[in-house]
Amino acid sequence: MHVADDWFADLSKVRAPSLILWGARDPYAPVRFGERLAKNVGGTFTPVDSGHWYELEQPDFVAAQLQAFWAGLR
Fold first, then answer.
1. Looking at residue 2, what is its pLDDT?
2. Fewer Cβ close by (within 10 Å): the C or N end of the chain?
3. Quick one: average pLDDT of 21-48?
């Protein structure tokens, strides 16, 4: 599978702090894509115990992850 191969390399130009949340049981985009995305942007990868719609399936967990990430920014 060659999803996003044409633009993933450009993600290394991202300079903003990044948190990549990804559904661990996403049936459409496997976890390896989220891990690769985080690596390419120099971000933090956090799997979520959910499917594709992690923000709907695990809203409290997602909110806590976002709050912790934002609190750690300067």
1. 66
2. C
3. 94
